[in-house]
C-alpha cells in the first residue's frame, strides 16, 4: 500500500511531466532554419561548383531565396536558378552593366547627344524591368513609366522639344487629367521639284490641319471600291481593301503597293488596239519611246517588204532613221506616215491623256537631255504614317477597315485617310478609368526603346555613358562597335 | 483572466491594433504600385518593417513574463497587447507580401507566422472556454485532493478485498488503474486501465467496468452474508472511484489543452524568428 501511495505521486498529470518540451524544439528549429536556409547557402556561394552542387541537391540552396519566377525570356539555363548570374555582388542591386552584357543592342529612348535628362540617368534597367514578380511582368505597364517625364517636359529637363506634355490617354481619367493625349500628327513625305529632280522630306502635320498627300499618284479610292465593281479584263470586279493592302509578315504595317502586283491586272499598258498583246514597259519613259519606235518601225517594214523584217533589217532601219539627232527625236514633226511620227503621236496620247496619265503626274522636260520629253514625276507613298506609335493591324483585323480609314468616299490620292485620336478613343481609353472601353496604357501604342536611337550601352559620350563608365563597365568589343545614330526625328 | 486581458485599460490595445490594421489596409488600397503589390514597394518595406518589429516585440513577451522585477508595464498589459497586435500582424504581414506566395523561404516565414498566430488563437479560445469547465469539473476540489481521495479508496478496497478473499482481482485493478500518462493520453482523456485475470491474461478495465463486473459476479455467487457485505462495499468503492477518475481525467485533459498550444506557439515563434532573419538578410543580399 505504501508503494501504491508513492506511485500516485508519480502520476503524470501535467504536460511538463511528459517528454514534451518547448525549449529544445525552439533551439532545433531556430538553428536548423538559420543553418539550412542561410548559413549553408551563403557559404556555398564562395565556390561556384559548391553552389551548383547544393542547388542540385535536395537541401535548400540560394534557390530557396527566389521570391518569384523569372519572366519567360529570362528562363534560360544560364540564368534560371543561377542567381549570381544577375546578382553579381551580395547586398547590391542588379547593375545595368549586367543587363547590358546581354542586351547591348537595346536602344535609347531619345538622342542622348542632344539631351541630358537627369531623371532617366537616375533610373536603372530594373526601374522599369521587374523580375521575380507575381504576376510575371518584365515590362512596366503603368502610365507613370512615361508620364513621370512626359507630363512636364520642361521640368524633366528637356527645354527644347516639339513633344507636348501629356498625363495619360483616354477621355475620362480618374481625377482630373490636366494634359490629355494630344490629337494625332502624321509623318508624311512631301516632294519638292518635279520628275528626276524630285526630292522628298518627311514632315509632321497635325491631322486636324487636313494635310494633303503629295505622292504624285493619281488614284481615287471611291472608284476602286465601287460596290458595283470596276472594269477588269474579265468583266466587273469588286475590290476589297485587301486586294491591294496586305500587312507585312508581322501583321503590323501594310506592305508597299506596286504596279505589277496591284494595278497591272486591270491597268494594261496596251498602246495600239490592233495589237492587244503589245504593251509598253512600266518604267523609264525613254524605254517607252524606244518600244513604240521599234514597234512602228517593224510595222512600217512589214508593209514595205511584205514580210516580217529580220532583226538586222530592223536594226539597220532604226539606225538610218532620218532627221534630228537621237536626243532630239521628240522635236520631230508628227508625221503619221512615218513610224517615228506615229510613235511620237502614240507617246503623246499615252503620256498626256491615257495610259500613264491615268495614275501619274507627268511633267514636260524641254531640256533635250532625254529621249522622251515626258517625264513621270516619281511616286512615293508614305509607308508609315505614325512612326511614333507601334500600331498593329493584326490585332485589329476583326474590324472593318472603314472603321478607321474613310476610303470609300475618297476621290483623290491626296486625301490622308489616317484616323485621328477620336477614332481610337471610340474603343480605347486610359488605363485608369471607369469607362466601358478597352483600357490602354502608354506602351500599348508607344515603345520606350526606339529603333532609331543609339544603343543604350553604345559609344556616344552621353551622361549615361559617363555613368556607365563610372560604374566600371567592361564593354565587349561587339557592343562597342555599335554606331551612334543621328537625330531622333523619324 | 481572459476578461482582464481583453479589456485591459478599456481595451486600449484593441484600438491600437484596429487603428494599425485600418491604416495599413487603407494605405494598401490607396497605394498604386508600379507593378502588383509586393514587399519591394515603399509600402511593402514599411509594412515589412512594422511586421518585423512586431514579431520581435511579440516574442519579448516570453522575456517580460520571466522578468518579475521589470517595471516595463504589467504582464497583463503586455499579454493584452500581445493578443491584439499579434492578430494585427496577420493582416500587416499579408498586406506586406501582397498575397504573393511561392515555394521559398519568404513564404515559409509567412506560413510559420500564420501557424504561430493561429496557435495563439487556440490559446485565446482555451483561456475563454476551459477555466470555467475546469472549475465546474473539479467542484471546488483540487487535483491533488481528488488523487488523495483515490488513494483512500484504493486503501479501503485493498483492505476489504483481503477480507473477502478477492485480493488478486482487486489489487490488480488498483495497480492497473491508469491516471494521466503521456501527452496524448492526457489530452485525449483515454483510460488505459487494465486488470490481470486469474488465468494470467490482462484485459482492459476502462472506467473500472471490468472489476465492477467481476465483483458483481462474485456477489451473485456468494451465500456468505459477511462476504456479500464486503463485496458490496468494494462495489460502492469502485463506483465512487469510477466517478472520481472520470473527473480527474477530464481535469488533466483540460489542464493539458490550456497549455498544449504553447508547445506549438513557442517553438514555431523561434522558427519564425529564424525564417524572418533569413528573409530579411536574403532580400537585401539578392537585392
What does this structure look like?
The complex is a heterodimer of chains A (490) and B (287). Chain A is mostly helical and 490 residues long. Helix content of chain A is 27%, strand content 7%. Chain A has helices spanning 2-9, 23-44, 48-55, 96-100, 118-121, 125-128, 144-150, 153-156, 221-224, 259-263, 285-305, 311-319, 339-352, 421-425, 463-470, 477-480, and strands spanning 185-192, 199-206, 230-232, 235-237, 362-364, 374-376, 428-429, 438-439. In chain A, the strands form 4 sheets. A two-stranded antiparallel sheet of chain A has the order 1-2. In chain A, strands 3-4 form a two-stranded antiparallel ribbon. In chain A, a hairpin with a 6-residue loop joins strand 1 (185-192) and strand 2. Residues 1-8, 323-328 and 460-490 of chain A have low confidence and may be disordered. The model of chain B has no long low-confidence stretch (mean pLDDT 91). Chain B has 12 helices and 2 strands. In chain B, a hairpin with a 5-residue loop joins strand 1 (194-196) and strand 2 (202-204). Chain B is 75% helix and 2% strand. Chain B has a two-stranded antiparallel ribbon. Chain B has helices at 2-6, 12-30, 42-59, 61-66, 75-97, 105-138, 143-164, 167-175, 183-188, 209-221, 225-260, 262-285, and strands at 194-196, 202-204. Chain B is mainly α and 287 residues long.
How many β-strands of chain A, per DSSP?
8
**Element order, helices and strands of chain B?**
HHHHHHHHHEEHHH
- The average pLDDT value of chain A, as a whole number, equals 83
Largest sheet of chain A: 2 strands, antiparallel
Query: So what's the overall shape of chain B?
Result: elongated
Overall shape of chain A: it is elongated
H/E element string of chain A? HHHHHHHHEEHEEHHHHEEHEEHH
The number of helical runs of chain A is 16
Instruction: Please state roughly what percent of the residues of chain A sit in beta strands, choosing from under 5%, 5-15%, 15-25%, 25-35%, 35-45% or over 45%.
Output: 5-15%
Q: Class by helix and strand content of chain B?
A: mainly alpha
Radius of gyration of chain B: 28 Å
Low-confidence stretches of chain A: 1-8, 323-328, 460-490
- Spans of chain B with pLDDT under 50 lasting ≥5 residues? none
Q: How is the quaternary structure best described?
A: heterodimer
Amino acid at each position: 500500500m505504501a508503494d501504491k501511495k508513492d506511485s500516485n505521486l508519480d502520476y503524470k498529470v501535467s504536460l511538463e511531466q511528459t517528454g514534451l518540451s518547448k525549449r529544445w524544439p525552439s533551439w532545433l528549429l531556430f538553428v536548423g532554419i538559420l543553418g539550412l536556409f542561410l548559413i549553408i547557402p551563403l557559404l556555398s556561394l564562395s565556390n561556384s561548383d559548391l553552389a551548383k552542387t547544393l542547388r542540385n541537391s535536395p537541401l535548400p540552396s540560394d534557390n530557396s531565396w527566389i521570391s518569384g519566377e523569372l519572366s519567360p525570356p529570362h528562363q534560360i539555363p544560364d540564368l534560371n536558378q543561377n542567381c549570381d548570374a544577375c546578382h553579381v555582388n551580395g547586398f547590391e542591386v542588379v547593375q545595368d552593366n549586367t543587363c547590358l552584357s546581354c542586351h547591348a543592342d537595346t536602344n535609347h529612348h531619345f538622342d542622348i547627344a542632344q539631351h541630358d535628362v537627369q531623371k532617366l540617368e537616375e533610373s536603372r534597367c530594373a526601374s522599369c524591368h521587374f523580375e521575380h514578380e507575381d504576376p510575371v511582368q518584365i515590362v512596366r505597364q503603368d502610365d507613370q513609366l512615361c508620364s513621370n517625364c512626359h507630363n512636364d517636359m520642361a521640368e524633366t529637363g528637356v527645354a527644347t522639344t516639339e513633344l507636348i506634355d501629356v498625363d495619360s490617354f483616354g477621355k475620362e481619367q480618374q481625377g482630373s487629367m490636366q494634359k490629355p493625349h494630344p490629337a494625332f500628327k502624321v509623318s508624311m513625305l512631301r516632294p519638292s521639284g518635279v520628275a528626276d529632280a524630285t526630292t522628298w522630306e518627311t514632315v509632321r502635320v497635325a491631322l486636324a490641319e487636313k494635310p494633303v498627300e503629295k505622292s504624285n499618284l493619281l488614284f481615287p479610292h471611291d472608284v476602286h471600291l465601287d460596290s458595283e465593281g470596276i472594269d477588269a479584263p474579265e468583266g466587273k470586279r469588286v475590290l476589297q481593301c485587301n486586294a491591294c493592302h496586305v500587312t507585312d509578315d508581322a501583321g503590323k504595317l501594310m506592305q508597299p503597293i506596286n504596279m505589277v502586283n496591284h494595278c497591272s491586272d486591270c491597268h494594261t499598258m496596251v498602246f495600239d488596239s490592233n495589237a492587244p498583246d503589245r504593251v509598253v514597259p512600266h518604267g523609264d519613259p525613254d524605254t517607252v519611246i524606244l518600244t513604240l519606235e521599234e514597234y512602228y518601225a517593224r510595222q512600217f517594214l512589214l508593209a514595205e517588204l511584205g514580210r516580217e523584217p529580220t532583226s538586222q533589217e530592223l536594226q539597220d532601219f532604226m539606225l538610218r532613221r532620218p532627221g534630228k539627232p537621237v536626243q532630239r527625236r521628240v522635236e520631230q514633226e508628227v508625221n503619221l506616215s512615218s513610224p517615228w511620227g506615229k510613235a511620237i503621236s502614240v507617246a503623246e496620247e499615252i503620256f498626256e491623256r491615257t495610259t500613264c496619265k491615268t495614275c501619274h503626274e507627268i511633267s514636260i522636260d524641254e531640256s533635250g537631255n532625254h529621249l522622251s520629253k515626258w517625264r513621270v514625276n516619281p511616286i512615293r507613298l508614305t509607308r508609315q504614317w505614325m512612326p511614333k506609335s507601334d500600331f498593329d493591324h493584326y490585332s485589329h483585323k476583326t474590324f472593318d477597315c472603314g472603321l478607321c480609314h474613310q476610303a470609300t468616299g475618297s476621290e483623290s490620292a491626296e486625301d490622308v485617310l489616317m484616323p485621328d485620336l477620336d477614332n481610337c478613343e471610340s474603343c480605347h481609353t486610359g488605363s485608369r478609368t471607369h469607362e466601358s472601353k478597352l483600357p490602354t496604357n502608354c506602351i500599348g501604342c508607344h515603345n520606350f526603346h526606339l529603333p532609331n536611337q543609339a544603343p543604350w550601352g553604345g559609344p556616344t559620350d552621353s551622361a549615361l555613358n559617363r555613368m556607365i563608365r563610372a560604374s566600371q563597365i567592361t564593354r565587349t568589343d561587339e557592343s562597342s562597335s555599335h554606331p551612334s545614330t543621328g537625330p531622333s526625328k523619324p | 483572466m481572459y476578461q482582464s486581458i481583453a479589456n485591459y485599460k478599456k481595451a486600449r490595445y484593441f484600438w491600437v491594433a484596429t487603428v494599425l490594421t485600418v491604416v495599413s489596409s487603407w494605405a494598401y488600397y490607396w497605394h498604386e504600385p508600379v507593378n502588383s503589390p509586393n514587399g519591394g514597394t515603399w509600402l511593402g518595406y514599411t509594412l515589412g518593417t512594422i511586421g518585423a518589429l512586431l514579431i520581435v516585440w511579440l516574442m519579448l513577451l516570453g522575456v517580460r513574463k520571466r522578468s518579475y522585477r521589470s517595471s516595463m508595464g504589467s504582464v497583463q498589459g503586455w499579454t493584452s497587447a500581445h493578443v491584439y497586435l499579434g492578430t494585427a500582424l496577420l493582416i500587416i504581414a499579408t498586406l506586406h507580401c501582397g498575397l504573393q506566395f511561392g515555394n521559398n523561404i519568404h513564404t515559409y516565414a509567412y506560413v510559420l507566422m500564420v501557424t504561430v498566430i493561429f496557435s495563439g488563437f487556440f490559446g485565446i479560445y482555451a483561456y475563454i472556454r476551459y477555466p470555467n469547465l475546469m472549475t465546474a469539473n473539479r467542484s471546488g476540489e483540487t487535483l491533488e485532493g481528488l488523487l488523495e481521495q483515490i488513494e483512500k479508496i484504493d486503501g479501503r478496497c485493498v483492505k476489504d478485498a483481503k477480507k473477502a478473499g478477492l485480493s488478486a482481482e482487486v489489487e490488480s485493478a488498483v495497480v492497473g488503474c491508469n491516471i494521466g500518462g503521456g501527452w496524448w493520453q492526457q489530452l485525449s482523456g483515454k483510460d488505459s486501465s487494465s486488470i490481470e485475470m486469474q488465468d494470467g491474461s490482462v484485459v482492459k478495465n476502462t472506467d473500472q467496468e471490468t472489476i465492477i463486473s467481476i465483483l458483481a459476479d462474485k456477489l451473485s455467487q456468494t451465500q456468505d452474508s459477511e462476504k456479500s457485505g464486503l463485496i458490496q462495499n468494494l462495489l460502492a468503492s469502485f463506483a465512487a472511484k469510477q466517478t472520481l477518475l472520470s473527473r480527474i481525467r477530464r481535469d488533466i485533459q483540460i489542464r493539458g489543452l490550456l497549455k498544449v498550444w504553447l508547445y506549438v506557439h513557442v517553438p514555431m515563434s523561434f522558427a519564425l524568428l529564424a525564417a524572418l532573419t533569413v528573409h530579411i538578410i536574403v532580400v537585401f543580399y539578392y537585392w
